[in-house]
Amino acid sequence: MKKFLVTGSTGVTGAPTVRFLLENGHKVVAFVHREDDRSKALMELGAEIVLGDMLKIEDVRGAMKGVEAAYLCYPLTQGAVEATAIFAQAAAENDVKQIVYMSHRQSRQHARSPATMNHWLSEQILDRSGVPTAHLRVNFFSEWVLYTAAEIRAGRYLTPFDPESRFVPIAAVDIARVIVKILENPDAFGSKVITVTGSREVSHIELAGILATTLGKEVRFEQVTPDEFVKILGWDGDPSYAMHFKAIKVDQQEQLLVGVDNSAAEIAGQPLTTPEQFIEQHRHLLA
Predict the structure, then answer these.
(1) Which residues form a coiled coil (predicted)?
(2) By the number of CB atoms within 10 A of the CB, which of 34, 72, 156, 228 ranks highest?
């Protein structure tokens, strides 16, 4: 039995990571910034809940004690680089054998999105920490369609991106399977960059058609500006989101999110969730 730390533990990748690790017989420290029904559910599964702030080093040090390996996931909002530095320092102090870091597929030293640049800078910090780190450069989540579930129920696939822009969506549960494999087998991974995509490339207008066919209803494609998009989602209180979507729109135009990579399926050891399967699994939210 090993002990693992999972940040973002109530999120779409963190929660299934906690669940899979517990199912495999491990101890899991689930780091949360507030207690709610989601953290209660993890506690009921057997996770140790640690309430803290990732920007406070003593909180992270406390959570890291006795941990074999750790998953680092930080939101698009400000503070990512500082949180990573704190996390890396705490991991080094506790002789952690492996970090798995959630990054962006288009992470690069000249990234136009501040959030993506923060991911690239965080990768550099982790690589210099002395703790082996697997950087997961992830494509769009399949959960993208759930952000606008209400609009899809109303018959429109709403996006700030161009109709022909292409990407390779991957379900968060499949990402979690990759995370677990790396955490459990640090000697097989160590320090490396892993491109994480789904098994099928689509355009946004094609995804609208897949939604319509799978749900058996009309779903029309509708493009709005990034500013309009974040306002519809209720995220306009934080300018980070609009800035990121504006940059990602250009990244897609430059085809930085195209191309299927088989690494996720190979590491997970099973077929990945298709767009149709994901939509069917979430029919109750989308139909």
Answers:
(1) none
(2) 72
| pLDDT tens per residue across span 46-97 | 999 999 999 999 999 999 999 999 999 998 888 999 999 999 999 999 999 9
Tell me how many domains the chain contains.
Answer: 1
Query: Which residues, in sequence order, are CB contacts of 27 under 8 Å at separation 6+?
Result: 1, 2, 3, 4, 48
Task: Give the structural domain span for 106.
Answer: 3-139+171-197+260-268
Q: What pLDDT, on the 0 to 100 scale, is given for residue 14?
A: 98
Model confidence over 1-19: pLDDT tens digits? 899 999 999 999 999 999 9
Residue 222 clears pLDDT 90, i.e. is over it: yes
In this predicted structure, what is the pLDDT of residue 76?
84
CA distances from 149 to 177, 185, 251 (A): 25, 37, 24
Q: Taking Cα atoms as reference points, which of 155, 125, 137 lies closest to residue 220?
A: 155
Can you tell me the distance from the alpha carbon of 87 to that of 69, in angstroms, rounded to the nearest whole number? 12
Q: Does any domain span residue 235?
A: no
For residue 130, the domain's CATH number is 3.40.50.720
In a domain, 246, yes or no: no
